[in-house]
Design goal:
The complex is a heterodimer of chains A (120) and B (151). Chain A is built from 5 helices and 5 strands; from the N terminus they run E-H-E-H-E-H-E-H-E-H. With 120 residues, chain A is of the alpha/beta class. Chain B is 34% helix and 32% strand. Classes of the chains: A alpha/beta (120), B alpha+beta (151). Chains A and B meet through helix 1 of A and helix 1 and helix 3 of B.
Chain lengths: 120, 151
């Protein structure tokens, strides 16, 4: 399977990749994008099986990215990995079609819990 | 340590453990500290909305580099300057996001800003210092500050 990681921080994309390996998902193909706008383009061009996106990014935020994706009829599995996790954000993410919201800092266990149903 | 300081202390320890794989322990805020005589790095993120203020994290530039290289699994001296700034900015982003969750659920978080310098002064107009904590990691001093502004 192919996973698209969208985060404006290279360090965080590195940590997400490391945590995917620690959670047992290291065999999947990984592609990356640096903000929501590039993430939207990559989702269309790369057709990933799962998008893991930050929320707070320049150019296009994660929630704007998800809403733009759904607006063009793209139903790719989508989850947020974000340092913010208010009840309001969780509701907005859910209403917009996100499968889950993982809060930073995260552990391999939290990845296993949320991603196993998608990645097997 | 009051309740807010305890929660900030807990967030810092958790972030360092999970993002860097490094144990940090609370220590007294040193004055003077190395940042007054040696190149230091400071990351700041602002919270606006129901609660207004900022979170700052500071340490020496050499330790910021060490942490970035640990996060990137790089050898000493291998990280580019923008990679160090990116990694340090992400630390304050994650700490700031968790502080926002503690203080103001519906507020907004800015993008992080990072700067380097010697003996600088950080000013967030209209704010007062709510708390300042210090941590020790591998002999290095890390300072975190929480500034509150009247909403």
């Amino acid at each position: 399977m192919k996973i698209l990681i969208v985060d404006d921080s290279k360090a965080m994309r590195m940590i997400v990749k490391r945590t995917l390996r620690q959670a047992g998902f290291g065999d999947h193909e990984i592609v990356e994008a640096e903000d929501g706008k590039l993430g939207l383009e990559a989702t269309v061009s790369e057709a990933p099986d799962l998008v893991l996106s930050d929320w707070n990014m320049p150019n296009m935020t994660g929630i704007e990215f998800l809403q733009a994706l759904r607006a063009i009829g793209n139903a790719t599995n989508f989850g947020f990995i974000t340092s913010e996790s208010s009840a309001e954000m969780k509701a907005q993410a859910n209403d917009s079609g996100a499968m889950f919201l993982i809060t930073k800092p995260f552990t391999a266990d939290s990845f296993k819990e949320q991603l196993t149903s998608v990645l097997g | 340590m009051d309740n807010l300081a305890e929660q900030l202390d807990s967030v810092m320890i958790s972030v360092w453990e999970t993002m860097i794989g490094s144990d940090i322990k609370s220590t007294a805020v040193r004055s003077p500290w190395k940042g007054e005589t040696e190149m230091a790095m400071m990351a700041c993120i602002q919270i606006t909305g129901g609660w207004e203020g900022a979170v700052t994290i500071e340490c020496t530039a050499s330790h910021a580099r060490h942490m970035a290289e640990t996060m990137f699994c790089m050898e000493p001296g291998e990280a580019a300057e923008d990679e160090v700034l990116d990694a340090f900015g992400e630390l304050v982003n994650v700490v700031g996001g968790n502080v926002k969750a503690i203080l103001a659920g519906s507020a907004d978080l800015s993008l992080p800003a990072v700067t380097t310098g010697i003996d600088y002064r950080v000013v967030v107009p209209g704010s007062t210092e709510k708390c300042r904590l210090a941590f020790e990691s591998e002999g290095n001093h890390i300072r975190v500050g929480l500034l509150a502004r009247q909403a």
